[in-house]
Amino acid sequence: MTAAAPVLPAARRSLGWWRYTWSQFLLSQKVHWRDLGFALTGVLIPLGLGIGLPASQHGKGEVAGIDGGVYLLPGMMGFVLVWIVYNVVNSATSRRGKLIYKRLRGTPLPDTAIMTGEAMSGSVTSVAQVVVLLVFGLVYLGGPAPANPLLLLVGVVLGAFTFALLAIGVSGLLPTSEVSTWLVTPFLFLMMFASGIVFPLSEMPHFLQVPVQYLPSSSVVEILRTAYLGRDFASNPATAQLPREVGFLQSFRACVMPLGLLCAWIGVSLGLGKRFFKWDPKRTG
After folding, report:
1. Is 155:73 a contact under the CB 8 Å cutoff?
2. What is the pLDDT of residues 131-161, one digit of tens each?
């Protein structure tokens, strides 16, 4: 009994932290949807592109031996996850400028609960869009069900976590939400064309094919495309040939490199957040 006694306070603290985090998530969602123009931008642009591009290429040719629309679909799932950067960066800079973060730090909410709630709020729309794209692929494109649903889930969750943390870290380098919008939006579309989202890396200039493989967006796309299509798009992302088929365990082994790169990017993002994130527009840290 005495050995088990310390477990109860620890469990209560953990439960209390999750309650704080959930409260912050609900607050962030409430504030997010009050700015309807910003909120709709985060819904309509990525989802419109996510549906429109695969639909426009469906039945019009093949990419790497696969119908163009079906090939694009997991790439666009990656793109809607990349859009988390837009949501979180703009939210963080806006709330910092309005002193919302400063006031929150005067409450019992732990800093980690505040940031986790913010990351969850910025990610939930994109994760829901991934589900919509999966249904769209089955119903309209006649695509397959995910070959490895577990790997797909791991890729979505890890990708969302990576982009949310990266956005929180980078937000400290941007002065206002207005400036962040003008800087972040072009970056997102650059990622769309530099990460294998809309066309294979083999079609990029040769001198760029290796460097772009280290982008977090490239890793997410490789994982999602491998998990969705059941072919190894991760071991050699720059190949122009139809990748080999992989089974359940083989697909995890094929994605060891991109999974490891995402973990490395999480470490980098945590470092950026610790160094540059600002709670108050007049202070650092």
Report:
1. no
2. 999 999 999 999 999 999 999 999 999 999 9
In which residue ranges of the chain is pLDDT below 70?
1-15, 240, 282-285
Q: What φ, ψ does residue 59 adopt, rounded to 5°? A: 75, 10
Distance CA(277)–CA(80), nearest Å, equals 24
Angle at 210 between CA 204 and CA 216, to 5 degrees: 95
User: Residues with Cβ < 8 Å from 10, sequence gap 6 or more?
Assistant: none
